[in-house]
Write a structure and sequence with these properties.
about 170 residues; alpha+beta; five-stranded antiparallel beta sheet; three-stranded antiparallel beta sheet
């Protein structure tokens, strides 16, 4: 139930009504309990608004956002991965991230280094896109730890710099 108070602020109530019956089965009266859930409702609406903002930002990324679990399996991928690599996000969800690096061993070392250092900025590497082409990317990654300090995920942003590097070579 949503009510308007005297100061024009919404008040949300959770109301429980229970009939009280006479011996013959007719209702004598109704017992009711109301609980103010305004703070809970405002928190829910704030969370919904925040999630919508995040989704709008996430879906409009030009770079590729990726999150892996501690084992290096992809658990989140921005839709921009399709325009940058040819893969739809659902094609690569659950895949080990290192299958997209031409050098699997180097990618495993990189993930371990991110967990050890906590972050890695402006890291240049090559990635294999769906066509099989190898493209150059600039990565910024950070480790995510659980409450006990145990590594639980890595998130990062990848920017395709292949064309930029080609232009720089041509200028040279």
């Amino acid at each position: 139930v949503q009510l308007d108070s005297e100061i024009n602020q919404n008040i949300w109530l959770e109301v429980y009504l229970n009939p009280i019956f006479l011996a013959d089965g007719t209702i004598e009266e109704v017992s009711g309990i109301a609980r103010d859930i305004t703070a809970k409702k405002q928190a829910e609406m704030g969370l919904k608004e925040s999630e919508e903002k995040f989704r709008d930002i996430f879906e409009s990324f030009q770079d590729v956002y990726c999150r892996t679990n501690a084992k290096g399996e992809i658990i989140m991928m921005s839709p921009s991965v399709f325009t940058k690599t040819g893969y739809a996000p659902e094609e690569i969800m659950g895949q080990p991230i290192n299958v997209f690096f031409p050098d699997n061993l180097a990618s495993e070392k990189t993930l371990k280094m991110v967990f050890r250092l906590g972050t890695m900025a402006n890291f240049q590497t090559s990635l294999r896109v769906k066509s099989g082409e190898i493209r150059d990317f600039m990565l910024n990654m950070r480790a995510i730890y659980d409450d006990n300090g145990k590594p639980e995920a890595i998130e990062g942003v990848a920017r395709d710099i292949t064309d930029l590097k080609q232009s720089a070579r041509e200028l040279m």
